[in-house]
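hey so i finally got around to running the thing on that chain from the lab meeting. sorry it took forever, my laptop kept dying and i had to restart like 3 times. anyway pasting the input first so we r on the same page abt which one it is
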Amino acid sequence: MESSTISSFKKIIANCQEVFLKKNQDYGMSWTIMRLSSLTDQIFIKAKRIRNIQGSQQNIIGDSQEDEFHSIINYCIMAMIIATNKEDKLGAMQFDQLKSNYDIIVKDTLDLLSRKNTDYGEVWRDMRVSSMTDIILAKLLRIKQIEDNQGSTTISEGAYSNYQDILNYSIFCIIQLTETPSQ
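ok and heres what got predicted. didnt touch it at all, straight out
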């Protein structure tokens, strides 16, 4: 039997993938021109906006926190696709290959979520969305440092693992916001 977290993960990802594929139809593979550092900065902008909304309780633009977390999920997947493919291969990637890359990353990230939930339980359910937002921002600062070090680390996990964690925390935030909207 599938846990409610896994079920929610799959629903959220299905929504994200639908948007991703439709935007890819509209814009093509234009996003593949971006460097990983540019995608990291895009995610950082989204996370900082969420934090500002949480702090000020004002949302002038109108995109909800949930919408921004959905965007973060897709930006993380874009970053992982770029990280795992050579530049010349990205530009020539066909729709089926793109969808396959997306699906592989999602499966690997869901597997990671399942393993961590086994070890930690679902302790994230007792966390505040604001705390998870701060963790996302901290992980983004880690990625920026790794990028500034040309991808090398001495003891820490790399940027890819941090993108996976950010994706999973974004899923948790969406679940929290939709289950208990006062977060």
